[in-house]
Amino acid sequence: MPRRRLRRIYLAGPITGCNEAQQKVWRDRIRRSWSSEFEFYCPVQRLQEVSEKGARITPYQVVNLDMKAIRESDAVIANMWKESIGTAIGVALAAFNGKPVIVIDKNMLNSSTLNFYAYAVVRNEDEAIQRLQEYFRTVGKIETVQKSRGRPDDPFRIDKLVVSIRNACYVAEQNDLLATAEIVPAVLRQLATLQTIEEGIVKSSVIKSTVFNVLAQLENDEEKGQSIQRIRQAWDQFDKKEPLTEFAPPVPVAIRIFPDPQMVSFPLAGKAHKLLWGKLGIRRIDDIPSSARELFKEICRVDGINEIRFGEIDGPSYHGPCRVDISAHKNPMQIKGICFDEGKYGGRQAFYISVRDRSLRDAVLNALREHLRSLNLLSH
User: Fold this and answer.
1) β-pairing, 101-104 with 75-79?
2) Domain shared by 358 and 282, yes or no
């Protein structure tokens, strides 16, 4: 069995305006301590090698070499012990290409921009290496992508995932730099926890649906949810083999909120379905336990809902007022939800909302979010 190659880490940090010790001491310490586990790219060493040859390196060559080195690396450690324009650009470029960035902020600069792009912010070199070890243990579980229809399998490549997500951002006319920096790490974390991965193999269909699920979850963010929703709609179209270049988001539609709950069906899963509140047979809204009943009445005030079906129980106990998370389901006729409440069997109850018109599913979803958010009934 061939030996797995060492992961390559780019060592970013201030160079211009720094003395030799400031440039080299921390980089040399990392390389000396961890060279058996990682391969390191040191831009200072590259500049020194060019200087020893008597050659002059232009700003264009510096930038071009740095960009190439970051793209070819597996991760970046950015030691931001002082502000550095070049390092900040390198961090953004790495995040744009789906590379995890560990920012060392020992002097507590607390840059909100760097913190956004960072996979983690730490205080020293040892913590940076520890977080990278954790990251590679996670993504290292996925080695091969199993294709459908008998096509040959491919090695799992993060850059291909990045390009696919960026394409969805592009056709949805959304910021692919900001979105990719947030979406890719979340997808990798979720993939690594899947029970369906066996011997490092993951199906391509599983990767696509995981991206969809991550996007659907990120839509719940009040600030950037609308942007993420457009990316999710574009990704869903791509998943259905429709041309991304012809993507057009659904036309916004106003959904009515009724003064009172409307008639909604509650299909039974057997005579008595085990829910987090107990073994219950819920046939109508008044059968829902009192702690969650008012919340579901608010859901039923939103037009376009056909039925609500309770699903599996998940998660530890929950203490606090009843709240929900809702997101798009891969089934275009459904919205999936998690109800958080105090119960006999746990604290998280899955439920599924079916809509009457698939073309209005996202409009109903948006109306639900806005209505529940206005009543402080969303979990975040």
Assistant:
1) parallel
2) yes
Which pLDDT tens digit goes with each residue over 208-252? Answer: 999 999 999 999 998 889 999 999 998 988 766 555 556 777 788
- In sequence order, what are the beta bridge partners of 350? 338
Where residue 241 falls (left for φ over 0; alpha for ψ -120 to 50; beta otherwise) is left
Residues 67, 173 within the same domain: no
Same-domain pairing of 129 and 152: no
- Same domain, residue pair 154 and 124: no
Radius of gyration from C-alpha coordinates of the chain: 25
CA–CA distance, 291 with 152 (Å, rounded to integer): 52
H helix runs in the chain, sequence order: 20-34, 43-52, 59-72, 85-96, 112-117, 125-139, 158-171, 176-192, 204-218, 225-239, 290-299, 361-374
Q: The domain containing residue 49 runs over which residues?
A: 7-139
One domain, residues 14 and 109: yes
Angle at 135 between CA 121 and CA 94, to 5 degrees: 65
pLDDT digits (tens, 9 = 90+) for 117-175: 888 999 999 999 999 998 888 788 888 888 876 677 888 888 888 888 888 888 888 88
